[in-house]
Amino acid sequence: MQESSSRKSNWAYLSNHGHVLVCLARDPNARLRDVAAAVGITERAVQRIVAELEAGGVLIREREGRRNHYTLNRDCSLRHSVEGGATVGDLLEAVLGPRKVAQPAATTSVTEFARVG
């Protein structure tokens, strides 16, 4: 049974943090302005989320000329206990599929970051 358009709710399965992470996995060189437009939040909110993800060890921001490049830590554990030890890589593969998420090189250690894109 479908809901009528007047009864639809605006919730989503992922948080804004998850949406930002997915956007940066798709395009590690994305401008935060474009991420904000895709997620439907302000650029300032995306800046705060990126800073929190960086502080949490989920990503590294590297300056490349006038742009930033974001490197994601696929081995970082998800933060909530109900996520049962799943990693950022597991989440990205579930959302984007394995072909859209770059696999870490065989020589990459657990503590190194793998490029996603």
General form: globular
| Cross-sheet strand order for the largest sheet | 1-2
The profile of the biggest β sheet is: 2 strands, antiparallel
Q: Would you count the extended β strands for me?
A: 2
Could you name the CATH topology? Arc Repressor Mutant, subunit A
Q: Whole-number average pLDDT?
A: 84
Give the N-terminus to C-terminus distance in angstroms: 38 Å
Helix-residue proportion: 25-40%
Structural class: alpha+beta
Strand portion, in percent? 5-15%
CATH C-level category: Mainly Alpha
Q: Which regions contain 5 or more consecutive residues with pLDDT less than 50?
A: 103-117
CATH architecture label name? Orthogonal Bundle
**Radius of gyration from CA coordinates:** 15 Å
Give the number of helices.
4
Number of structural units classed as domains? 1
CATH homologous superfamily, by name?
Winged helix-like DNA-binding domain superfamily/Winged helix DNA-binding domain
| Helix and strand element order | HHHEEH
Write the layout of secondary structure elements.
Elements: H1 16-26, H2 32-39, H3 43-55, E1 59-64, E2 67-72, H4 88-96
Antiparallel strand pairs: 1-2
Helix pairs in contact: 1-2, 1-3, 2-3
Descriptive account of the structure:
With about 120 residues, the chain is an alpha+beta fold. It has one domain (about 15-100): Arc Repressor Mutant, subunit A (Orthogonal Bundle), CATH 1.10.10.10. The protein has 4 helices and 2 strands; from the N terminus they run αααββα. It has helices at about 15-25, 30-40, 45-55, 90-95; strands at about 60-65, 65-70. A two-stranded antiparallel sheet has the order 1-2. Strand 1 (about 60-65) and strand 2 form a beta hairpin. Helix 1 (about 15-25) crosses helix 2 (about 30-40) and helix 2 packs across helix 3 (about 45-55). The radius of gyration is 15 Å and the shape is globular. The N and C termini lie far apart (about 40 Å).
